[in-house]
């Protein structure tokens, strides 16, 4: 059986059904999986109106109420899309060697395309918890003979790094890139348990000439180009006058920027309940908490015999196990997510959150009807995975960010 590109494109269409793409992109990412979707984010931007104050023409004296000039207070978060891409390539030699065996070629191609989908999903799932700068870790130290080993400040951040990634750095989160920002440095090897990265050039300071302890790390091309995630919508400190999607959140930092609760000195279950109480005070009804696996283990051990497990379904075929606690407005599902920050619990009313995208947020970018195109710079065929999207919230004040202890 011979293989041409028409039959190959058709093979990809048959293989990558909506269900298969969901399996590849959602199975290991609960927050991404549980988010509601709106795939009709057309036009230049998308306004999300927020009523943060009702009319105050009220008084026990009618004439005073009647003379009032107050109106409802409304602001529009004007969302703009960001982009993300992953490219799968199959080289020409593999194609030629498999030309009489379409199954062999499809197997090689599917391996690469599956990997691109999973890389794209990890990128999005990570960014959904963060602030949009694109940083995925901080340098703890650089050592070894000739500065060969970079140790992350937070060892568990190793989950965000992969061998083969091209890394750049800056001295502040979202600040200007340091030396070597054009080409970056490629990760050659890593020890996930130790949180250490080894680079291709042999020394981290060869290419990234300014890199040092405390600097922030990014994938090349990601700086200030990622989705505005939970850390942007509900920052660790009350938002100031700097506009966020065209809104000055200092006008009402809670209703426009969420609640914050410090539970770092409390038992974790007490902190989660108290955080939900904080949100409830301002009208919120927390339905889910998302926490790291380490914090989930802490909660599980803390609850002891009181723990109650629950099944959290994203689709008929994709679900997650969580713990259930009782908040001021009813049961709350606590779900572990590998991409969640280790010292934060995100208490969310999931009815208020949505992932807005132009068509599916993660998909094969089909151009001219085909699923693959000739790589213009290499002897290879490439399949482009990507999407155009943004995270939106219709009631930030109904959610809470809880700071947890270690």
Give the SSE layout.
Layout: H1 5-15, H2 18-26, H3 30-34, E1 36-38, E2 46-53, H4 62-67, E3 73-79, E4 82-91, H5 92-97, H6 102-127, E5 137-143, E6 149-152, E7 166-170, E8 185-191, E9 196-199, H7 204-207, E10 216-219, H8 230-233, H9 253-257, E11 259-263, H10 268-281, E12 288-291, H11 293-303, E13 309-313, E14 319-327, E15 330-336, E16 344-348, E17 353-357, E18 363-364, E19 373-374, E20 380-393, E21 400-404
Parallel strand pairs: 1-17, 11-21, 12-15
Antiparallel strand pairs: 2-3, 4-20, 5-6, 5-10, 6-9, 7-8, 7-10, 8-9, 12-16, 13-14, 14-15, 16-21, 17-20, 18-20, 19-20
Describe the structure.
- It is a single chain.
- The chain has 406 residues and is an alpha+beta fold.
- The chain has 3 domains: 5-51 and 78-130 and 357-392; 137-219; 258-354 and 394-404, hypothetical protein PF0899 domain (hypothetical protein PF0899 fold).
- Helix content is 25%, strand content 30%.
- The chain is built from 11 helices and 21 strands.
- The strands form 4 sheets. A 7-stranded mixed β-sheet has the order 11-21-16-12-15-14-13.
- The longest helix has 26 residues, at 102-127.
- Mean pLDDT is 90; it is low at 1-5.
């Amino acid at each position: 059986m011979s293989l041409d590109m028409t039959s190959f494109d058709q093979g990809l269409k048959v293989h990558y059904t909506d269900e298969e793409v969901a399996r590849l992109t959602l199975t290991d990412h609960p927050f991404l999986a549980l988010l509601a979707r709106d795939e009709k984010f057309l036009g230049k931007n998308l306004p999300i109106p927020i009523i943060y104050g009702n009319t105050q023409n009220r008084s026990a004296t009618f004439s005073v109420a009647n003379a009032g000039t107050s109106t409802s207070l409304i602001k529009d978060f004007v969302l703009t899309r960001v982009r993300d891409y992953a490219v799968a390539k199959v080289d020409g030699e593999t194609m030629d060697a498999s030309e009489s065996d379409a199954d062999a070629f499809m197997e090689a191609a599917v391996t690469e395309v599956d990997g691109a989908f999973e890389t794209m999903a990890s990128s999005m799932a990570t960014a959904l918890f963060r602030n949009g700068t694109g940083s995925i870790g901080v340098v703890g130290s650089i050592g070894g003979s000739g500065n060969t080993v970079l140790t992350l400040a937070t060892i568990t951040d190793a989950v965000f790094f992969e061998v083969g990634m091209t890394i750049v750095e800056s001295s502040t989160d979202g600040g200007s890139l340091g030396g070597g920002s054009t080409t970056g440095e490629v990760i050659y090897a890593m020890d996930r348990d130790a949180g250490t990265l080894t680079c291709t050039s042999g020394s981290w300071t060869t290419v990234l000439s300014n890199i040092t302890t405390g600097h922030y790390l990014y994938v090349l091309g990601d700086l200030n180009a990622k989705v505005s995630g939970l850390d942007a919508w509900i920052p660790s400190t009350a938002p100031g006058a700097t506009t966020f999607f065209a809104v000055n959140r200092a006008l009402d930092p809670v209703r426009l920027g969420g609640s914050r609760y410090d539970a770092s000195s409390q038992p974790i279950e007490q902190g989660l309940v108290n955080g939900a109480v904080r949100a409830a005070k301002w009208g919120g009804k927390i339905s889910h908490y998302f926490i790291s696996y380490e914090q989930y283990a802490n909660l599980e051990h803390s609850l002891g015999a009181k723990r109650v497990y629950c099944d959290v379904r994203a689709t008929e075929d994709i679900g997650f196990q969580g713990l259930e606690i009782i908040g001021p407005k009813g049961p709350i599902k606590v779900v572990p997510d590998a991409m969640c920050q280790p010292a934060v619990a995100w208490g969310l009313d999931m009815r208020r959150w949505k992932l807005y995208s132009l068509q599916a947020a993660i998909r094969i970018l089909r151009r001219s009807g085909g699923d693959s195109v000739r790589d213009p710079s290499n002897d290879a065929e490439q399949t482009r995975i990507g999407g155009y999207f943004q995270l939106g919230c219709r009631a930030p004040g109904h959610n809470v960010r809880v700071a947890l202890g270690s």
